[in-house]
Design brief:
The protein has 265 residues and is an alpha/beta fold. It folds into two domains: 126 residues, Cobalt-precorrin-4 Transmethylase, domain 1; 122 residues, Tetrapyrrole methylase, C-terminal domain (Methyltransferase, Cobalt-precorrin-4 Transmethylase, Domain 2), CATH 3.30.950.10. The protein is built from ten helices and ten strands. The strands form two sheets. The protein has a five-stranded parallel sheet with strand order 3-2-4-1-5, sandwiched between helices. A five-stranded mixed sheet has the order 6-7-10-8-9, with helices on both faces. Helix 7 links the parallel strand 6 and strand 7. The longest helix has 13 residues. The structure holds S-adenosyl-L-homocysteine. S-adenosyl-L-homocysteine binds next to helix 6, strand 8 and strand 10.
Length: 265
């Protein structure tokens, strides 16, 4: 059967009064899913975070773009205000596209927003996006899993590392499996320390992947012992992902001379 992109994306109708909670992928618009690209053209209003790139937003047909992220050191819009806004727009009969970086359900608070929509009886759909970790690893020639090296991969948030009630980093270290840390540039020193206390070698390879798939993309490789100093020396800032584990050593192997820059901005 010959399917066209139009028939693939036409199936669920974007109806007035509905909210579509969608992931915009890692940055570059080429990583949008077909249905999110289509939703950008159909929405009446788009409520987006800072991680949604200008390239993605330039595909919107509506001029009605509402920014609810954190920018220029100013605090982000409170989560309750964002959900209240979504509900108000839906009740006004708009097709509301709530657009988040990466995937809405991976450290994106999509679950909380969907919960509020359920509570308020607002019809909604979740549209997945490519989470930044998978895109960034591919862009860096680091396989997320690899037979003989890893059997699992942990996606963790570094946001609260070292504070009471946070993740048990030492237990993660004991699995010996690779860890990808979101929101961890500010806490990498603490994370590295806890992982070493948990038994990971100070020589464990680490990659820091910043602004993957965007024009600001940069990366560095280090070890658990040196990563904090390298992050500071090279001025790495959010958004960045930290990849910890033996899979990082595959980067040198796979970045040989036949590797094309196919996943670059
Ligand atoms: N829902 C998003 C994650 C939001 S949390 C997703 O699925 O990707 C924000 C964190 O995501 C950032 O602090 C950073 O760690 C990571 N991130 C998002 N986009 C990124 C990118 N293009 N390059 C590197 N890290 C990114």
């Amino acid at each position: 059967m010959n399917e066209s992109i139009e028939t693939i994306v036409a199936a669920p109708e974007f109806a007035p009064g509905h909210v579509w909670l969608a992931g915009a992928g890692p940055g570059h618009p080429r990583y949008l899913t077909l249905e999110v690209a289509d939703a950008l053209a159909k929405a009446d209003v788009i409520v987006h975070d800072a991680l949604v790139s200008d390239g993605v937003l330039s595909l919107a047909k509506t001029p009605d773009l509402i920014f609810v992220g954190k920018r220029g050191g100013k605090p982000s819009v409170a989560q309750d205000d964002i959900t209240a806004r979504l509900i108000e727009l839906a009740r006004a009969g708009k097709r509301v596209l709530r657009l988040k970086g990466g995937d809405p359900f991976v450290f994106g608070r999509g679950g909380e927003e969907a919960e509020a929509l359920v509570r308020e009886n607002i019809p909604f759909r979740i549209l997945p996006g490519m989470t930044s970790a998978l895109a960034a690893l591919a862009a860096a020639n680091i396989p997320a899993t690899m037979r003989g090296i890893s059997r699992a991969i942990t996606l963790a948030t570094g946001h609260a590392a070292g504070t009471p009630g946070d993740l048990d980093w030492k237990a993660l270290a004991k699995t010996g499996e690779p860890i990808v840390v979101y929101m961890g540039v500010g806490t990498i020193g603490t994370i590295a320390q806890l992982l070493m206390e948990g038994g990971l070698s100070p020589e464990t390879p680490v990659a820091v992947l910043m602004a993957a798939t965007t024009p600001d993309e940069r990366s560095l490789t280090a070890t658990l012992a040196t990563v904090q100093a390298e992050v500071e020396r090279q001025n790495f800032v959010a958004p960045a992902l930290i990849v910890i584990g033996k899979i990082v050593s595959m980067r040198a192997v796979l970045s040989g001379r036949t590797a094309l820059p196919g996943n670059k901005p």
